[in-house]
Amino acid sequence: MNKNNLENKNCLITGATGGLGSNLAKILLENNCNIFLTSRNKLKLQKLQNQLEKTNKNNCKIIYEYGDLTKISDIKKIIKNIRKNFKTIDVLINNAGLFLAKPISKSKIDEFQNIFDVNVRAPFLFSKEFSQDMKKKKWGRIINIGSSSSYQGFSEGTIYCASKHALL
Q1: For residues 4 and 145, what is the distance between their CA atoms, to the nearest angstrom?
Q2: Whole-prediction pTM value?
Q3: Are the C-beta atoms of residues 95 and 145 closer than 8 Å to each other?
């Protein structure tokens, strides 16, 4: 993407404390974006924000909100905080994901539910919420981070593969 296309854009990254999420946050900050970070790990989230603040040469906004994306109440809390701080989101990166390697015969319904809540429902809810802003502005990007598991399964990966295929 051309740097000028991203300058001053408001970006949301779910799963920001993972390797890919934190690298995306650094790249977006380098491109003068305001970034809203989410993670279920509060300490890692604070650490990432502190690291980013040190390299924030253009005084971009860096906001974070802890949240468990298996809980609708946490998703609503994140959306409320975004609306308070940014009003709109221009770039949504649905990066959060849960992985489970377990035979389907030993998998539990709550494991299935949690994986689908994070890998499918949360991206749907964030996309539904912020795509309306993008349509009004006639500009926006929604990026769903998938997996090669969307295309080909593997032993003990039934639930994960199904969730990534659903996201695809």
Answers
A1: 23
A2: 0.93
A3: yes
Q: Residue type at 145?
A: I
C-alpha–C-alpha distance, residues 150 and 163, integer Å = 8
- Of 37, 36, 129, 132, give the one whose Cα is nearest residue 76: 129
**Strand ranges (DSSP E) for the chain?**
10-13, 34-39, 62-66, 91-94, 141-144
The residue written with tokens 């991206």 in the block is 123
For 62-92, the pLDDT digits (tens) are 999 999 999 999 999 999 999 999 999 999 9
Phi (first) and psi of residue 147, to 5 degrees: -165, 155
Contact 11, 28 (CB under 8 A): yes
